[in-house]
Amino acid sequence: MTIVPLSTYLKMYRKRTGFTHDDVAFLLGGMSGTTVSRHERSHRLPILKTALMYEFIFDATVRELYEGVFREVQLRVRERARGLCSSLERQPRNPTRDQKIAVLRRIIAEGEREIERAA
Amino acid sequence: MMQQNTDHLRVLAVYPYRRGFGFAVLERGKLVDWGLARLYSKETDEFLTRVEAMIFRYAINIVAAEETTNARRSPVAKQKVSRLLAFGKDLDIQVAQVPAVTIRGVVGLEPKATNHELSSRIADYLPELAILLPRKRKFYEPEDDRTFVFKAVGLAIATLCG
């Protein structure tokens, strides 16, 4: 069993660089240190552009920065993929349907691998 | 350094001192958070409130503190540690007490190694702490507060490895 990841590891990456909230806010532009603190405490999620800026500043993927959020999203998509896959399997065979099913099975398998790794 | 499979644990190590406490949060060999928390009240309630906030923020599995029974620590520090351990038990969280010798042993130091040697060794393992490393103190100078962060990190490492 592994621990449930924290929803964000932004603070860890920021402290590794030695930057303050205000330093990061300056790099992001048009933002205050308080907003950065809210992102770190998961009181607020950054917009896509800000998340990509974090990725660039801290040299870590958004997936690594928001590991907990990623796991949550992955779980949700996997469940929905299962539903879509079973409804597609009931349809008559054609190349598009088969391709979709292959992608969905990859999504489901990847999610299951993550769960096994966590167990 | 990390020998056991401790993937399922997130440790909060707390090292109280006169003006506050050093803390470190460690999981899967990663140092998630670390630093010094200053306390403004002499009561242990503020100390416990701050620790509680960290326990919930990081969903802590183990709270670690130094084994103070035979340690040369102030009565206030000893009292804080015992309150912390009781508090951890109240919250139904595993608590661990690690002797200072174990901390030094886990990072490959002699039991009589100085605090500066301990801090330097930990900074070698965890380069993100290098900026906090205080210079070697003169014998007439008091201990630099930043040393307590290294002590907390050492506690966390010893808890996960021991």
Quick structural overview:
With 119 residues, chain A is mainly α. Helix content of chain A is 72%, strand content 0%. In chain B, β4, α2 (75-90) and β5 (94-98) form a beta-alpha-beta unit.
Shape category of chain B? globular
Return the structural class of chain B: alpha/beta
Distance between the termini of chain A: 4 Å
Mean pLDDT of chain A: 91
> How many strand units of chain B?
5
What topology emerges from the helices and strands here?
The complex is a heterodimer of chains A (119) and B (162).
Chain A: H1 10-17, H2 21-28, H3 33-40, H4 48-58, H5 62-65, H6 67-89, H7 95-118
Helix pairs in contact in A: 2-3, 6-7
Chain B: E1 10-17, E2 20-27, E3 30-38, H1 44-57, E4 62-66, H2 75-90, E5 94-98, H3 100-106, H4 115-125, H5 147-161
Parallel strand pairs in B: 1-4, 4-5
Antiparallel strand pairs in B: 1-2, 2-3
Helix pairs in contact in B: 1-2, 3-5, 4-5
Please describe the structure with a list of short key phrases separated by commas or semicolons.
heterodimer, A: 119 residues, mainly alpha, 7 helices, B: 162 residues, five-stranded mixed sheet, 5 helices
Walk me through this protein's architecture.
The complex is a heterodimer of chains A (119) and B (162). With 119 residues, chain A is mainly alpha-helical. Chain A has helices spanning 10-17, 21-28, 33-40, 48-58, 62-65, 67-89, 95-118. In chain A, helix 2 (21-28) packs across helix 3 and helix 6 (67-89) packs antiparallel against helix 7 (95-118). The model of chain A has no long low-confidence stretch (mean pLDDT 91). With 162 residues, chain B is an alpha/beta fold. In chain B, strand 4 (62-66), helix 2 (75-90) and strand 5 (94-98) form a beta-alpha-beta unit. In chain B, helix 3 (100-106) packs across helix 5 and helix 4 crosses helix 5. The mean pLDDT of chain B is 87. Classes of the chains: A mainly alpha (119), B alpha/beta (162). Chain A binds chain B through residues 1-4, 6, 9, 11-12, 15-16, 18, 41, and chain B through 7-10, 27-28, 30-35, 57-59, 61, 128, 131.
